[in-house]
């Protein structure tokens, strides 16, 4: 069920609900727009919205104009700092913003992003980022196939490690929630790898280069099962892996979602439920269980490349569903919706 929608100023590519208590009504949406010409310009923005599903409100309260953005992520819950938003952009910068002047859910109006620090960490483009579980480090995937591990110390970004991990664009990097010394990476070279950062440079723990038929776009470790990890690929498959046997996925082909699997997000409360952005085939909610994964619900109200997707971290609504935000690229459309399915039945 659609709650609200709006159009952004640029091509929409990422949406992220703030996970921190008291700020879970805040939704960030980012854009990347290539302006053609003799000297092409990659422009972008971050827009902050107040989401009130019960009233059907999606209210813009702040916009930050930046370089073209490939990814944004809020800092993880459980750290000692308030909400921070990290940005990976086309100019090779990693920027960190704090959320300031934003009241709690009962008085949600106002607020803005304040840049805490920004550092050009590469001459290549920054394509993806991920916070470690304690929000002390950020991994950044780069367009030259490298991965950079940075830390935020005293309002300054410092590079801890950087190494050439893949032959082509590194579209995704993911800290292991249960073993944060491990980082997983995926790339246009069709390889899925794991690295141990206790060595410098990091030591490769494993790689699988035979299963994905096209580039690896996204990786997501299960928050509840330390042995389960998911990958999404341009080849349209969402794959479930058991880290104790990495030679092949649990189901040889797992589940075909009918479009390149660009993003996957685990449900914040319901184990085994995943939200997927499927590029050319809208969005899907997938149930991952003991049997072959299956599509629980599909959402096709976007008319362009399905890129950004996230669950709201607020409590389950009556009926057991959770609010979802999605965005599509060329039509610049941001939608907030409520799944039809009753998650209590899962």
Automatic annotation (TrEMBL):
UniProt entry tagged with the keyword Hydrolase: yes
EC number: 3.1.1.97
InterPro entries: Diphthine_MTase, WD40/YVTN_repeat-like_dom_sf, WD40_repeat_CS, WD40_repeat_dom_sf, WD40_rpt
Pathway: Protein modification; peptidyl-diphthamide biosynthesis
Reaction catalyzed: diphthine methyl ester-[translation elongation factor 2] + H2O = diphthine-[translation elongation factor 2] + methanol + H(+)
Gene Ontology cellular-component annotations: cytoplasm
Family per record: Belongs to the DPH7 family.
Name of the featured protein: methylated diphthine methylhydrolase
Species this chain originates from: Gossypium arboreum (Tree cotton)
